[in-house]
Each structure stands twice: as structure tokens, then as C-alpha cells.
Design a protein that fits this description.
single chain, 336 residues, alpha/beta, QueA-like, Thrombin, subunit H, 2 domains, 6 helices, 19 strands
């Protein structure tokens, strides 16, 4: 599925790429910077520890409790080439969506460590070879295999490899994301204590994020999600009472908006390929905490739905002027 260009057009300078976690830069997780956009009132740049300054008693934060997998493994193709294979999304049984980091034009069997293998069956999209449906053959579950032989997915902008715990959020408890639901990374016990003292509420859902290395203008593909009944009730109660529902990450937006029926959020699960657009609008979410997204990323369409083009462009100009950092170890953006 393709999408039209989204968000402000800009070139991301290398110096604004977060190449290591905050901790490696001498900061605590909750000391990353926080860009706050209040619709109709402009921007403020603060520190994430200041989060409660911008929230109200009764606000409901909805978080993603998906935990990150060490989803990258070494593989060998049938012609003997060494490559890296990313496990993206569990489909059913031994069937997964995988991403070979190297051009493979035909179905084939890839050899993995410890006698495991992955058989590429068919591409996910007819005219692209980036993502494949694949059958996995191991002597243990895939999650167990990845924890024995895998490592976190790493992209070229990172200086080096970092341990899996650097890719986990404080909320992660259900293993399944190929890449960290990174908007929640700055949350710490200290911040959670401050939220509780201020009467800010928390609810959780699950959406397992797949690989994010889409081609230009490529939309997110179907990802597994589950909205529990308790979270649905909390969201509906907040909206009835005029309290704000703030999604912690675009994954949460996709899950909540996928669970809306007749104007209310219901307990729901399965997979979602929902793309939130300005034309569709938002039906369950009033605000969003998210990272800073690369130019033309499909996630920017969610920000457009919240802010509109002009406010989004202004917010990103402020981010540039303040030298905020992009990517999963970077700074974060609160939209209210």
C-alpha cells in the first residue's frame, strides 16, 4: 500500500540523529528534551521530567506494553551470501513476516545458527521484495530462539550495537515488537511517581511494532494489537467526562483508533493496517506523545490529523532551531 507524501518536507542533518541512548550521552532517560505543542498556542521546549507541567489531573495516558525482541539474526542465502534477517511480525503458527537485509529475488531457504532455518514463501506485496512471508523451523519457539541468537535491530545511524535492555520501555511486558515502541522510552519510576501524585491515570494496550524501514511513502502494514476491556472502559469514561486521552506513541493511536465502534472504544484485537489521516480524523485520542519523525514518514499523517499542516511545520521548525534529536534514542514531542 502506498500513501501520498506526508508532513513537512525537510532534510535531516546527520548532527540531529541520535546515535546512542541518552544514558551513553551522560543523561538519565527522563532528561531527554520534550517539545510541547499546544494547539493554537505554540511550542515550548522543556525536559521530559517536566512532563507533569503540561498535564492535568484526570488526564489518561494510554501506553503500549509490547516488549522489544532481539529481532535481528545472521543468515546465509542459498547462494552462500551472508546477510542479516529481521523478524518483523508473527502471523500464525510458524509463519512470520521477515525482512532480509539484502536483495533476494526468489523464494528460498535461509540457514540460521543452531540448525534453524527460514523458508521465504512469497513477498508481502506483489511488486516489492523487501518483506516476505516465511516459515520458521527451530527446535524452540521463535521468541526463545531470538533471545538465544538474536540482537536488537540496528540501523546505520547508530554508532554501535547496544544491549537489548536499552531498547525496552518501562511498560514492556509482552514480547513481540521488532522495534521499540520508543515514545515511552523516557518514562522512569521517578516520572511515574510524579504522574501519580498529580492524578494522571495510566492504561495499557498492546501493539507489536514491525520493522520501520519502509520505502518512501510506504504505509505501515498490518500489525497485531489488543485493546483490553479495562482500557476501553477507561478511555470511554475519560471522554464522557471531558478528560483528555493522550496516546503514548503512534502505535497506541493505531490500536485505539482501530478499536472504535459507533463512537466508543471497544475491547478488540487482531491485526490492524489502519492509516490515520487528516481526512479520517481521530475518534479516540486527544493528544499524543511521540518521537520526531523523518521526512515523509507515514506516521506524520497522524500528526497532521492532530495539528494540521501549518502547526506541524512550525513545530518542526522549532525542533530544528532547538537542535532536538531524531530516532528511537532521541527527544520526544508532546501534542496537546
Amino acid at each position: 500500500m502506498s500513501v501520498t507524501p506526508a508532513g513537512p518536507a525537510f532534510a535531516l542533518p546527520p548532527e540531529l540523529e541520535a546515535r546512542e541512548p541518552a544514558e551513553a550521552r551522560g543523561l538519565a532517560r527522563d532528561e531527554v528534551r520534550l517539545l510541547v505543542t499546544t494547539r493554537g498556542a505554540g511550542e515550548t521546549v522543556a525536559t521530559f521530567r517536566d512532563l507533569t507541567r503540561f498535564l492535568r489531573e484526570g488526564d489518561l495516558l494510554v501506553v503500549n506494553d509490547s516488549a522489544t525482541l532481539p529481532a535481528a539474526v545472521d543468515a546465509r542465502s542459498e547462494d552462500g551470501r551472508e546477510l542479516v534477517l529481521h523478524f518483523s511480525t508473527h502471523v500464525a503458527g510458524t509463519l512470520w513476516i521477515v525482512e532480509p537485509r539484502g536483495v533476494l529475488e526468489r523464494p528460498q531457504r535461509l540457514e540460521l545458527a543452531a540448525g534453524a532455518s527460514v523458508t521465504l514463501l512469497a513477498t508481502v506485496e506483489a511488486n516489492a521484495t523487501r518483506l516476505w512471508f516465511a516459515r520458521v523451523d527451530t527446535d524452540e519457539t521463535v521468541v526463545e530462539y531470538l533471545h538465544s541468537h538474536g540482537r536488537p535491530i540496528r540501523y546505520a545511524y547508530l554508532q554501535r550495537e547496544f544491549p537489548l535492555e536499552q531498547y525496552q520501555t518501562i511498560f514492556g511486558r509482552v514480547p513481540g515488537s521488532a522495534e521499540m515502541p520508543s515514545a515511552a522510552r523516557p518514562f522512569t519510576p521517578r516520572v511515574l511517581d510524579l504522574l501519580a501524585r498529580c492524578g494522571v491515570m495510566l492504561s495499557a494496550l498492546t501493539l507489536h511494532a514491525g520493522v520501520s524501514s519502509q520505502e518512501a511513502h510506504e504505509a505501515p502494514y498490518a500489525e497485531p494489537y489488543a485493546v483490553p476491556a479495562a482500557t476501553a472502559r477507561a478511555v470511554n469514561a475519560a471522554r464522557r467526562e471531558g478528560r483528555r486521552v493522550i496516546a503514548i506513541g503512534t502505535t497506541v493511536v493505531r490500536a485505539l483508533e482501530s478499536a472504535v465502534r459507533d463512537g466508543e472504544v471497544i475491547a478488540a484485537g487482531g491485526t490492524t493496517d489502519l492509516v490515520v489521516t487528516r481526512e479520517r480524523g481521530l475518534r479516540a485520542v486527544d493528544g499524543l506523545l511521540t518521537g520526531l519523525h523523518e521526512p515523509r514518514a507515514s506516521h506524520l499523517r497522524i500528526l497532521e490529523a492532530l495539528l494540521g499542516d501549518d502547526e506541524l511545520e512550525r513545530a518542526y521548525r522549532v525542533a530544528f532551531e532547538a537542535n532536538l534529536l531524531w530516532h528511537e534514542f532521541g527527544d520526544v514531542h508532546l501534542i496537546l
